[in-house]
Each structure stands twice: as structure tokens, then as C-alpha cells.
Write a structure and sequence with these properties.
CATH class of the largest domain: Alpha Beta
Helix content: 25-40%
CATH topology of the largest domain: Aminopeptidase
Number of helices: 16
Radius of gyration: 24 Å
Number of strands: 19
Shape: elongated
Oligomer: single chain
CATH superfamily of the largest domain: Zn peptidases
Strand order of the largest sheet: 7-8-10-9-13-17-14-15
Structural class: alpha/beta
Number of domains: 2
Largest sheet: 8 strands, mixed
Strand content: 15-25%
Length: 520
Amino acid sequence: MTNKVRILWGIIGLFAATLISAKASVNTPTQVLFTEQAASADYLLLGVSANGETGAVGLAINQNSAQGLSYLIEASGFTGKAMSTKLIPAPQNSGFKQILLVGLGEPSQNSEVEWQEIGGNAIQKAISEFKTVPTFAAELSPDHAAQLAFGAKLGSYYFDKYKTDSEQQKSVTSITFAVPSPAATKALFNKDWNSVANAIWHTRNISNEPANVIYPESFVTYWKQQLKGLKNVSIRVFDEDDMLDKNMGAIYGVGRGSARPPRMMIVEYMGANKKQAPVVLVGKGITFDTGGISLKNPPNMWNMKFDMSGAASVVGTLYALADRKAKVNVVAIAALAENMPGANAQRPGDVVTSMSGKTIQIRSTDAEGRLVLADGIYYGDITYNPSLLVDVATLTGSASRALGKDYAALFTRHNELAQKFIEVGIKTGDQVWQLPLNDNHFKAIKNDVADIMNSGPTAPGASAGAAFVGSFVREQTPWVHLDIAGVAWNDKATPIKASPGSTSFGIRLLNGYIKRYFEQ
């Protein structure tokens, strides 16, 4: 790359950083507040359990309205079933005009995920009915109320910063919960949930941005801004010259075809004893994937901005851990490149040499994610000697076709890890399903010209992709490969994701796993 081109892209990078900074305030995380009383207003969200209990707020309304609230709930046929809602007129003398009833089900039987979905669904219904979010009154323990608030915050996320019509803008600045123990609930929410919610928010933001805004350099700029001020966090960034110096021919080869050069972002959070071997998280960060010379089908190419979701989620996970001051050491590595069919792009049949020394024949330039991971995961393994190494990648259509939108595909040489990840996935809502990885998959990627090839084996696609990545991990290193191709984004709304787009998959899973098995 010439000096003139470097200078030009440096100027563009500064402009992009300014743009991101200017836009950031448009979609900042919703603030969550806790109080004991619900002040009089036009609207109210009121939690109702399956046995009809409405809590102190509901009792007060009943007293002021001669049992009018109980009558209206019964007349509406509302049963308090979890996830159900019902809009009713507020009784006279209640201090409100309308009340949105929110079914809480049997509070003692709800899981964390169910509380999250109840909260998120209620907020979305409120925005749909009222164009705003009134106070949400619920008679719940601090633990259940904090989980409800976490889901509500996630459910209030809308990526509407580019909507110029105010009628289409649904973002809200704050949500207030009226609960029996506001101080205790706030303490629990801030301790366990708010940092994770903010991490998910930032991860969705960067993943949903178009590729003309987020590319390798601006990805780094964005996360530097979010991580600024967090204690025990340090950042290093490798540019293309560093990659050449370190013989990172795999990631460099992917980025060659773009005028926007590749980057590798290494973020360290050392929140525990320095002697503790860190957990290393490596994410595929293809900020846009045309397929390179092996060009993708154009009608479906627009959503390839989500091909950096793995990188966004691993840095987002580190953000969550650092922001909540977790006593653990974690390193997040984002392997970033834009896969373009430029004049300098690598070709099918080319051979590149990875940092490990292994040579790779390029069979398809559209199998680029495993190439950037090859150098990123090898660097993480040999540099940090991790206690656990996890890579997260939108790697294969095969994983998506096998598991759909329900699960990410999990591969590992260490089967004892699989069940642990499955259990944490069920608890957190980021569910995974183990797919096979055996010697035949590793044999299938061997090549007559180079050591291995990046595509074209006879083995199942997702397993072959996992074997390729695993070829750059030492066998003794505890390693898990998560193929999130089917779950990284979704064009349908869910209770905890109102907007089509990024799901931020992996943050709840990795935060929960690290919290259970590694935090001191």
C-alpha cells in the first residue's frame, strides 16, 4: 500500500471516527431506574401473577377505585399467564387513563430466560400501544425484578438511528420499575445484569451498522471509545505491516483485495491475579464479505455486514466482564478484514503461509473466515497459553442449515466441555448444539499442494470448517469452536430483540460460562 493511499485512508478513518462519535448518542443504552411508587400518569404497566395478585400498586388503585381494578381485570378475562398482555381502561380515581396488564405467570417457576422475555415483550407492547414506556409496577423479589429489568432493557433496543421519520423512531431513553425493594433491586441489577445489557447494546449497534460505516479500522475506533475508562483493560492493534512482520499471511491475504486494510485488535482485561492463565476469545471479523473472487450471489449479499458478528461478540463479552469488574483474566481478539474482489485480491489456487508456518491452498476465497481465524487463534494460543480458548464465527451455511435459528453449532476435541456449554446455554438463552468433529474431518482438509486447503473437502461443511480452525490450536489447549452463522442475526423480532438485525449471540453464553467456571 502506498503512502498516499495510507494517508487517504487515515483521513477517511478520522472522518468515520467523527461520524461514529456523532451518531453514538442517538442509540445509547436505555437507562433503567427503580422506585417504590408509581406516580400518576396517563399510562401504567402493571404486572399480574397467575393467581391474580397485582402487588402494592394494584392494591392502592383498587382502594381508590372501590375495587374497580379487580372488576376490570376479571371482566377482561385476563389470567396473568406469562407473556400475555391486555390493555384496559384505568378505573376512575386511579390516577391513570389506561393500564397495560402484563402476565407474570407463576413467579417462583420462571427461569431467568423467561423473566427476560416477559420484560422485553412487555416493553415492546407498551411502545406499540403508547409510543413510550410508562412505569412498570411489579410485586417481585429483587432477584426476579432485576432479571425482568434486564430483559426489558434488551427488549427496548431499536436500531432506528437512520430513520428520519419520527413516527418510525421507537427508542426510549429510560424505563422505570416500581418494585417493593428498589435499592436492593438496583444493586442486583447493577451487579449482575446492567453491564451485560450494555455490552449487548454496543455489540448490536456495531453489528447493525452498514459496512460503509464499520470496517476494520472503524471497528477498532468504535470499541476503543466504548472501552475507554474501564479499569485493567489494555488494547493493541496490529496493522498490515505488523501482520507481514509476524508472518500472518492468512488474515493478510483475505484483506488484500480491499482498500480498507485488515486489522487485528487484541483487548486484554486482567481482573484477577496476573498468574491466572486467561480465557482467550477469538472472533471472526469480516466487516463485509463479497466472497472475494469467488463472488457470492448478489441478491443475498447485503446482509454480509453481519459477518463480523463473532468479533463484535467477543469484544462485547470482554466489555461486560470489565464493566462489572469480574475477577477473571480474559483476552478478546478480533480478526478483522473486508473481503473484496479488488485487483490485489487473492485468487482460488493461491497458497498462503499462516503465522503457524502451515501453508494453505485457497480453494475458495469465500471460505475466508477460517483464514482470519487461523492467525488470530494461533496468536492467542501461543501468546497466552489460555485456560480456555473459544472462537466465535459466522463460519458456514452448513451449520445454519443443520440447526436453523435455534442453536449455534459447537465443536470441540474436549467433549467434557460440550455439556457444560450446553447447560450454560440453556440457562442464559444462547443455546448451542454439539456437532461432530473427528479425525476424518481433519484428513479431509489435507491438500496435495499445500499442508491444508480452506474449502472443497468431502467432509460435512461445518465440521470441515471446525477442523480447519482446530488445525491452528494445540491439541492440549481446551478449545471450543462456535459456528454462529444461523443465529448471529435474525430478521424477525423476539421478546429481547425488537429490531431486525444483530442478536449479539454469544455474550450471554460466554459471560455466564466464565462467571460459573473461571471467576475467582
